[in-house]
Design brief:
With 947 residues, the protein is of the alpha+beta class. The protein contains 38 helices and 18 strands. Strand 4 and strand 5 form a beta hairpin. Helix 3 crosses helix 6. The radius of gyration is 38 Å and the shape is globular.
Length: 947
Amino acid sequence: MKSIWHCPRRRRLIGAMVLIGLSTTAHADPVRSDSAEKLPPVVAPSIESRFSQPNARETPDFQKHVIPLLGKLGCNGRACHGSFQGRGDFQLSLFGYDFKADHDALMAEQTGRIDTDEVDESLVLAKPSDADMHEGGKRFDKQGWQYKVLRQWIADGAHFDSSSVQELERLQIVPAEIHFASTDQSVRLRAIAHWADGSVEDVTPLCRFGSNDDSIAAVSEHGLVRSGESGDTHVVISYDNAVVPVPVIRPISGDADSLSSPSLGSIAEAPPTKPIDRLIQQKLDKLGITPSAVCTDEAFVRRASLDITGVLPSAERVADFLQETGSDKRARYIDELLDSPAYGAWWATRMSDWTGNNAEQLNNVLPVRNVSNKLWFKWLQKRFDDNVPYDEIVAGIVTANSREDGESYLDYCREMTEICNGNLDRYADRESMPLYWSRRNFQQPEERAIGFAYAFLGVRIECAQCHKHPFDQWSKQDFDDFAKLFAPIRAGNANVVSPESKQEHSELTEQLTGGKKLRGGDLRRAIQKAAQKGDVVPFGELFVNTRGLTDRQKQQRAIAKRKGRKVPPVRIPTGKILGDGDALELSEDPRPALMRWLRDEQNPYFAKAIVNRIWSNYFGIGIVDPTDDMNLANPPSNAALLDHLAAELIEHKFDLKWLHREITNSDAYQRSADTNPSNVNDRSNFSHHLPRRLPAEVVFDMVMLATGSTEQADQLRSDVDQMAIADGKARTRNNSDFALQVFGQSIRETNCDCDRSDSPSLLQAIYLRNDADMYKRIADKNGWVNEICQQMGIESPQGVQSSAQTVRQRQDEKVRQAIVKRVSQLRKLPKARQEKVLPSAEKQYTRMAERLGQTYDLPSFEALMQDPSIWDKLETQNASKLLATDASKPSLDEVIRQAYLRTLSRYPDDEEAKIAAEYIETSPSPTKGLEGLLWALVNTKEFIISH
């Protein structure tokens, strides 16, 4: 028996009656009968309230009521029957995504789970209502509404029609946003389901509720939200395939409404003028947060260079920037960085992370080894250098073909042979980059679906490979349909070629092997050897194995139809784009359709994904965090901001440099890391700069630039291909640079952003402080310390001294020993004899000391005569004495300032300069003092973090 709420005509009638009654009370015009169809639908009361009545007789719906109720009770959760192995020989689909499978499991014969004859004997009623029988404990009372719902469904036949699964159009949550003013306030949520058939029902008792941060807002299983600490978070409501986040805001202090009141205006010191800053300020006003001030020029010049290009600015550039005047100097500096070669190199490396450029997974993709990952990088680097629109870069990957238009297979092999023999830059001129599809861990349709979603959508869909995604709308069917799109794409090792190229591939192979039947490693070695000699070798190619009808088959079917013969239906495989209900026939390459979907202005992921990743690079946290997990239960911290930037990026034709400028010119990006009482705990609303450890490649290059000589550093900055930021130190499982590994370089085994780690660790501190590499770099002959030593005319660091310096030091030591020996002998003479030879001995000491006094601290002759043992070794003069003798040499103050500029991109303050000078002056030698100063600066937190 159906409830009145499940009959559309009765709902409309009651809706009309209610509105007529209201209109009559308000003395409005009468409602015409022919307008009843246009009335808003009446919300059916919740099933809890309906079945709490003693005479409830409606038949619950399996999809709308029974499955959600089982989910609410936890029956289809991970810890119960929703686990992969089920419980008690009874398995349900996790979170109830598969209605047919669940109905079949419930109705399975000989199980007693559902008994339509002896309803009360059904185990789904008996066990959950009896704690002793049910391993999961008591879930409801026999007098409760949950029991009544399940019992009524069973009594009415326990039906479910798998051919008519209903569509939930939207789940409306009331209120849509919660504002708390103090602790221990509460708000009760109401969930209203809007179905495609026009029915609307309160489903609050059937929803699952959760909070993204219980400390700010805790939510009960019944939807009661209680306020906690100040801040903002979301409570998440799940029902059927809907997942809806509801923002919860509790200001730092005061009332949320008063803080955002137009009469008070913004709490910011000055009204923001840029769109980014306005949207951020609107959120901060709601939270009662005052943003930090804009950072100093010293902080900005370093931060912008490291974030935009991944390169530590030179001491000279920092000094020049600090001396510049003009209100637009920061904007000009940003443009300078975006036009530098390091920009293209650094962002090609980041894009290589996101797309999975892994040398190990590309092994044997090309007949010439160890070049695939370099070609991938070069292709990306050129496009970032040329500021190719982002959608065009992605199109060159997604719709890639091995051969250019009009290029024969033989011409393609000839070109690729020349490229792989050293002309790597030529690959960047090719229109597309098919290597993306060729990785060993990217051959199965499921792997491609997951990787594609990571790389270009910022979405993690792998959960839906096995079950309904717990935090998003995707079902297993959605995943399977999406994965089918990638099945026709063929790309892999050097032997994979299109059918029309097989003959030429075989002929080339035969020519190289002399007709010998070589296989495996022998064949690869023969081809590689031939390629190194300049012979044209066969290359694999990407092709799409479509499943449509051939021209001949189409002709045969047309003839059969004309002759009246029965033509069997054509079964062409299909797939579906995520979120698109229309099937896509795989009779042709599906990738152009995928690319059109990505470019569509209505695409909810593509533009937002790249905006979010670039934003995260500058702020240390994405607007959605993690950056590759844009799911319904993980909403943006500032949805209006993400929507604005994505829409503007599309409006600007996916111009990435526009996006970089827009972000880095904002006050939000340029804010200080210093906090105030209102924003000290803010991590996600961009009210201040978040200090963070820099990426592995950036740290690696920073150490090289800070410790290297000026000439060496300038050479690296002008030829970025030698730097780690230019993928110059690509990591593989069995071959990785220790420093890059320690600092979390991306392993690129998946397309997940979690392959890279920017978290600090104890091992990183140990490496910078104690690793032999660090000491070698500081004392290197091409290092800055040695450069300064040569300018100052003092001994070079130990280990890089020239043979002449070593001989001179030995000679000096022999002179010291001779003087000490002569004085010791003199002291043994009788006193009368001593007095006679003393003047000549003192003159001799003075002459010998002249040679040593320019470099070493010497005792006086009188002190030496009293105790020769006080001069047991040569001690270099302290730095201030050495430098005071020659005005042409750099002063100690200048050297210290230079050290700070080249490491921390700022000048030392007076106290720091004093401490550094005292340290160098009291060191065993000026060289040791300089080494210690540079070591100390590289080991400061200020050096290793963005600040």
